[in-house]
Amino acid sequence: MMKRLIVFMSVFFIMSIVKAQGPEKLISCHVDKVSFSQFSDWLNKESGVQVFYLPSWVSPIKVTVHQDQISVIDAVKLAIRGTGLEVSAWNGHLVLLKGEKLITELPLYDKIGMASDTLTEQAKELTASEERYLTGRMADVVQTIRVGKVGGNNFNSKAKVLGRVLDVETGEPVFYATIYFPELKSGAVSDINGFFSVMLKPGKYTVLFEFLGYEKKKYMLDVISDGELSIQLKKAVIQMKEFVVYGDRQMNIKAKDAGLDKISMKSIKELPMMMGERDILKVSEMLPGIVSAGEGSAGLNVRGGSSDQNAFYINKIPIYNTSHLFGFFPAFNSDIIKDFSIYKGHIPAQYGGRLSSVFNIVTRQGNRKHFTAHGGISPITGNIVVEGPLKKDTCTLLISARSSYSDWILKKIKNPDIRAGSAGFYDFSAAVNYDIQKTQLSLFVYHSSDSFKMPEINNFNYANSGMAMSFSHNYSNALRGEFAVIGSQYSFNTINMQEKSSAYEHGYLMGHYEAKADFKHMIGGNNALMYGAGTVLYQLDRGNVEPFGSQSLHNRVLLGKEQGLESAIYLADSYDPSPRLNITLGLRYTIFNPMGPGTVFTYQPDSPRELRYVSDTLIYGNNNIINWYHEPDIRASVNFETDENGSLKLAFNQMHQNLFMLNNAISIAPNAQWKLADYHLKPSASNQFSFGIFRTLARSGLETSVEVYYKTTTDYPDFKDGADFLESSHVETQVLQGTQKAYGVEFFLRRSNTKLEGWLSYTLSRSMVHISGENAWDKINYGESFPANYDIPHALNLVLNYHLSRRVTFSSIVAYQSGKPITYPVSVYYIDGVPQLDFSKRNAYRIPDYFRTDVSLTVEGSLKKHKLMHSSLIISVYNLTGRQNPYSVYFTNENGKIRGYQYSVIGVPIMTATWIFKLGNYASE
Amino acid sequence: MHQNKLNAVFLVLTLIVTSCIKSFTPNIESGDLNKIVVTGQVNLGEEIQRVNISRSSPISSPEYLPIIGCSVEISDDKGNVFVLGDDGNGNYTGQIDQGYLQAGTSFRIKIITPDGDEIVSDYDQINACPVIDTVYYERKDVELNTPGKYSLGIQFYVNLDARATTSRYFMWEAYETWEYHADYPIEWWYDGVVHHVWPPDYSRKVCWKTRKIQHIYTLTTRNLTDNLFNRYELQFVDNLSARLMYGYSLLVKQYALSETAYTYWDQMRINSNQQGGLYEKQPLAIRGNLRNLTHPDNEVLGFFGAAGLRSTRIFVANVPDLPLDFSTYCSPSALRQGLREIGPSDYPAYLMGNEFGYSLVQLNVECVDCLAQKGGTNVKPDFWPN
Residue B385, SS3? Predict the structure, then answer.
C-alpha cells in the first residue's frame, strides 16, 4: 500500500467514566500501522502508563488497534497479538516479556462492578451472591455459570439448558444474539423473546454471547443437569460499530437460511433519507434480488416475483399496503423497529401464503427500567415514540405516533386545483408486553391511514388496521410454544372524477383474521423441531363501483363479497449432523377453501370465459365450501460451513399463494384490489432452487456472496389483453393463468468496520411469463413468453458510508436499474375509416433506464454518555444528479392524436434537513 | 387508474419539489412504425370484392396513408386467380363471378407493393351463410346510472338460425340510415341585399344520412347444441335524436366466418369497446393472417378473409309509445339591431319569413340546409320507401 508508513491517529475522548487508573484505565484507541514504540509513547501520554520492552523484540510490530473503550493493558495485548510476547502489569505499568508472564502478584483491583450486575443464575446450588463472590472479584478469570443440580440428571444423557439473554439496561430480551461454544464449534441463536436452548453433555464449556451493539460476554458454563440461566448483556455504547460488523458477518456465514437478509437498524439509520424519512423498504431495495417499482410507488419485486407475492408482517400483523402517500413513506415508524428480516430464498415452514418473500418486522418491546421518549421532525412529518415500564421489569408499554403536517404547504401553491387539495397520513402503534419468567404476553395494535384529495380529479383514502395478541410459554427447557390471534383490515375508497363522463367511486374492505400456534422443540443437542398450525379467514368485500356525479355514464358494477379459509399445519426439523453442517427440512400443508356466499358462473367447455358463454350458475350459501385446494409445500435447506470464513447454502423452496392483487399498472396503486383464489382462479405455486456461496475474505474482511436462483411459478395469473378489473365481478373473465420463470444471479460485496464501509450489489436476472392455453383465447401474447411487468435484467446498487468521525458520517447511494418493460401503442391504422391502435407485443419495449445518486450527512450530537437528550441533524440530497428518471411513460389521446409523456416523479435534486431527538445518549433506543 | 395515481403523485410532488412531465417519444422500431395494413374480404353474396391497403402511421400524427399502385391478386384453392384494379386511395376492387364463390372454397390474397414487398395471407374458407332469420326491434328502456332514470328507445335484435349450415362463427355489421329534415325551406336570405326565393326551395329540407355502426358484433354457436341463437342484441337507438322521427332503416349484414377470422374480429370487438384511458386496461395487440414474404420480420396488420354474406334491411317509423325528445340544430336568433348585425362573413344569411315578408330573425344554416350536417345527402336512397 502506498500509505504504508503514514501514521494516522485519531483519538476521541468520550468521557472518563472509569475510576481505574494504570493498566486498567479505559482509553479510546485508534492507531493504524504505527510502530510499537510510537504506540507506547502515545499510550504513555494518554494514560500515564509506561510500557517496558526490549526494542529489538518489537521492531517488526506494526500496531493497528481501533477500539473506543479499551483498557491500556488490553490495547497492548492486541498490539502484540501473535508475536509470542506476553504483557504483565507491574506497579501500574506494563512489562513485555518473551513467552512468559512476569512472576509477581497481580495487584487487586475492582473490575468496575460490571460483572456483579450482569450475571444472575437460577436453579443452582450456590446462591447468586455466593457465585458473585467467587467469580465476580476475580479479574481476567472467566466467570463460571453452573447450570443444574448435582444428581439432577442421568450422567449419560444430555442436559437441556434453557437460557435467556436480556438487555441489562432496558430489561428487554435480546434476540438473535449468538451463543457460541468454541469447543463444540456449535451454538444457538436466541429467539424473539431472548430465549435459547441447547442440549449439552454435562461438563464445562466456554460460551460466548454476542450480538450487534452489545458487549461480548464470555463465560464458563458448568453443566451438571437440566437447568436454566439468564444472561444480561450490556449495550456497547461505544464499541457498537465493531460488534455490528461482527454480528452481521457471523450471520452470513452461520445463518441457516439461504437468501435471508437481515438489516440492522444501524445501517438503516445511516442511509440517505428521502425527504427526511427513514424507509426500511427503501433499504431493502439496495439488496441484491430486490427491486422497487420506482419512485413514489409502493411495492417491491423480489427475485422476479410480482409485488403481491411478498408478505409483510409487523409483529405478526399482515400489512396489505405498506406505504404512505403512494410509496413515498413507509407505513411503519422506523424508530420502533427492532429487527427486520427478509426471507427470499429458504422461507421457514412457519410462513406460507406468498410466493416470493416474507418481510418480517419485529418492533421493540419498550424499556423495562424507565420511561423514555424520542422523535423527529422532517419537512413532511413529525413522529414521537414513548416507552417505559408499566410495571418495572415485567410489563412495558411502547407507543409510537407519526403524522404528516403537509397540508399547509399545499395552501402555498399557486395552482388553485392543488391549493384546494389536501394530502395527509398518520400511523399509530401501541405495544404492551408482559414478561414473567417463562411466559410472555403481548398485545400490539397498529393503525395507519392515508387521505388524499384533489378536487375535480380524484380522492384516495386508505387504511390498515391490525391487532395481534400473543402468548408464549416455555413448557420445559426444550419446548416452547407460542399462540397468537391476529386481526387485520385493509380498506380503501377511491373517487375518480377526472373525466366527468366516466367518474366513479369505489370502496373496498378486506379482513384477515388469523389464529395460530407455533412450537419449537429441542430434541437432542443438534436437532430442533418446529411445528405448528394456523388458520386464516379472509373476508373480502370488493365493493361496488358506482358512477360518481350526475354526468357519469360509468357502469354500476357490484364486485361482490368473498370469503376464504386457509388452514395450514407444518413440521420442520433442523438437524446438525456435524458442527459444520445444518440440514433443515420442512413440510407445510395448506388447505384453502373459498367459501360462500357466492354466485359462481360456469362456462361452456371449449369456450372463452366470457359472460356470454355462461352455461350454469352455481349459488353457494353462507360458509358453503366452493372449492378445495390442497397444497403441500416442501422447504429444504442445507447449510455447509466450509471453514470459519465461508459457507455454502442450498435451498429448495415450495410456496403457494391464494391471494392475488388485481393490478395491471407498473406500480401498486392504492386502489389495487386483493382477490382470493376461487372456483376458477387457482392458487399459484412456486418452486425455487437457490444456491449461495458466502465467504468472508480473511485478510480484507470483505464479505462476499454469490447466490443463484431458479424459480418457476405455475398458475401465475396475468391479465388478458383488454382486461378491466372494474368492469366485472367475475375476475376469471379477465385473467388467465400460466407459468412464470424467474432466474438470476446475485452478487454482494460488503465491507464493514472500517471508516469507509458499505456494500455493492449487482443482480442479473430475468422474469418471464408464459401463458399459452390450448385455445387461441387462452393465450396471452399469442402464447409467446414475454417479460413480466417487473423484469429488470440489471440492477446495481452501491451504498457507501464514510465516517469522518464518530459524530459525522457521510453516506451515499448509487442505484441503477434497467428500464421496466412496457407495451407501447406503436402506430395507428384505419379499418373502414375507423382508427385502430396497433400495440406492440406484450412488454416488448422498455422505458429508459433508472439511475439515481443520493448523499447525506449526519451530524450526531455529543457522545456523552450521561445526558438528557441526544439529537442529530441529517442533511440529505435525493437525486443529486437531478436525472429525470421515468417513473412511467403514458399516452393520452389529444384531439385524435396520441401523445406520449414521460413522467418523472423527481426530476431535480431535493435537499432536506431532518432533526431527530431522543431522550438519553447516542446509543439509546 | 394508473393515470389517477400519476396525478396524485404529481400533486404530492408539486408541493415539495418539481416533478416533471415531459413529452416523450418512444423509440419505436421502424418495423413497428409503419406496418402495412390490409383489410378485405371475399364475400359470397356480393358482386364487387374490395380490398384496402394502407400503412399505419405514428401515433403522434395519425393519418390514413393509402398505398397505391399495388398489384393485387385474389386466388382460390383451385388455382383460379382474380386480379383487382386500383381504384385509388388505397382501394382495390374486382369482380369475382359468383360461380367461383362457393362455400368450402378458400381464398387468399397476394399483394406486391410498389416497394416490391410481397404480401400474402393465409387461405380463409368461405362458410355458407344462413339466411338472416329475423331482424326486429322492441321498445326498451335502459336504466341509466342514476337510479330511476331511463333512456327510452328501441333495441334491435337478430335471430340466428344456422341449422341449415355448418357455420358456427358469425359476425354482423349494421348500417343505419335515417331521414331528417331542416326546419325551414330556403325562402329569405341576405347578402347585403335581401333576396326572396319563390316558391321556397325545399331541395335541402329533406336529407338522409347513412353511417356504419362502429360496434362489431360477433357470436359463436360452437358450444350450443343447436345452431340457433335468439335475441342477439344489435343497435340501441334512443329517443334523443331525430333518427326515429321521419323514418329509420337498419341494414344488417351477416357474415359466416372461419374460426380464425372470428378470433380476429372478436379481438377487434374487444378493442373497439374500450372506453377510457389507454392504460386503464391491458392493451391488446391484434394479429391477423397476413405476412410479408420479402421481409418476414415486418408484421402485416389486418385480415383477409372469405365469408358467406347475407343482408337484410328493416325500416322503422312511428314507434308507438315512444315520445321523442330531441332538438334540431336550428337555433334562430333575433336581430335586435336589424340587418346590419349581419356581417359579410356571415353571408349568405337566412331569414325567417313567409310568402309575405321576412322577420328580423336570423336562421343558422342548419335550419334551412340539411346538407350542412356532415354526411347527409338530399338524394333519396333507392331503398327508401316512398
Answer: coil
Q: Do A326 and B8 touch (CB under 8 A)?
A: yes
Q: Which residues have a Cβ under 8 Å from the Cβ of A653 and sit 6 or more positions away?
A: A345, A346, A347, A635, A636, A637, A686, A687, A688, A689, A690
CB within 8 Å of chain B, chain A residues 670-689: 670-671
A263-278 pLDDT, tens digit each: 666 666 666 665 566 7
Task: Decide if A910 touches B, using CB distance below 8 A.
Answer: yes
CA neighbours closer than 13 Å in the CB half-sphere of residue A389: 13
What are residue A46's phi and psi, to 5 degrees? -75, -40
Mean pLDDT of A373-402: 86
> With an 8 Å Cβ cutoff, are A721 and B26 in contact?
no
The alpha-carbon gap from A873 to the nearest alpha carbon of chain B, in Å, equals 20
Residue A669 has what pLDDT? 65
Cβ contact (<8 Å) for A296 and B9?
yes
Q: Let me know whether A133 and A87 are in one domain.
A: no
Question: Which residue in chain A has the smallest CA separation from B6?
Answer: A903
Q: Please tell me if residue B278 touches chain A, with a CB cutoff of 8 Å.
A: yes
Cell numbers placing A60: 517488526
More confident residue, A461 or A299: A461
Give the nearest chain A residue to B39 (CA atoms): A831
Q: Are the beta carbons of A609 and A603 closer than 8 angstroms?
A: yes
Does A901 contact B15 at a Cβ distance shorter than 8 Å?
no
Which residues is A314 bridged to in the sheet? Answer: A317, A361
Together in a domain, A54 and A83: yes
Q: Are residues A652 and A532 in the same domain?
A: yes
- Cα separation of A312 and A333, whole Å? 14
Q: One-letter amino acid identity for A764?
A: L
Residues A448 and A588 in one domain: yes
Helix count and strand count (H, E) for chain A: 10, 59
A790 reaches B (C-beta below 8 A): no
What is the helix (H) or strand (E) element at residue B1, kind and residue range?
none
Q: Which residues of A touch B282 (CB under 8 A)?
A: 664, 719-724, 823
The verdict on B58 touching A (C-beta cutoff 8 Å) is yes
What ipTM was predicted for this assembly?
0.80
Q: Which domain holds residue A176?
A: 114-233
- Of the candidates B26, B34, B145, the beta carbon closest to that of A547 is on B145
**Strands in B5-144 per DSSP E:** 20-23, 36-44, 48-55, 57-58, 65-66, 71-76, 81-88, 91-95, 106-112, 118-121, 124-125, 134-143
Cβ–Cβ contact B280 with A under 8 A: yes
With beta carbons under 8 A apart, name residues in chain A contacting B268: 831, 836
HSE of A36, CA atoms in CB hemisphere, 13 A: 22
- A290 vs A304: CA distance, rounded Å: 8
Q: Do both A50 and A194 map to the same domain?
A: no
Half-sphere exposure (Cβ direction) of A675: Cα atoms closer than 13 Å: 28
Task: Kindly give, in sequence order, each residue whose CB lies less than 8 Å from that of residue A853, ignoring residues fewer than 6 positions away.
Answer: A812, A813, A814, A815, A879, A880, A881
Structural domains counted in chain A: 3
Domains and CATH numbers, chain B: 36-126 (2.60.40.10)
Residues 236-295, chain A: which have Cβ within 8 Å of B? 275
How is residue A794 written as a grid cell? Answer: 440489471
Q: How far is B96 from chain A (nearest CA, A)?
A: 21
* C-alpha to C-alpha distance for A201 and A65, rounded to whole angstroms: 38
Convert the pLDDT of each residue in B322-346 to its tens digit.
888 888 888 898 888 888 888 888 8
Whether the predicted pLDDT of A716 surpasses 90: yes
Query: CB distance from B28 to chain A under 8 Å?
Result: yes
Instruction: List the CATH number of the domain containing A92.
Output: 3.55.50.30
Q: Is there a contact between A721 and B284 if contact means CB atoms under 8 Å apart?
A: yes
Q: Does A838 touch chain B (CB under 8 A)?
A: yes
Pick from A647, A640, A641, A601: nearest CA to A620: A601
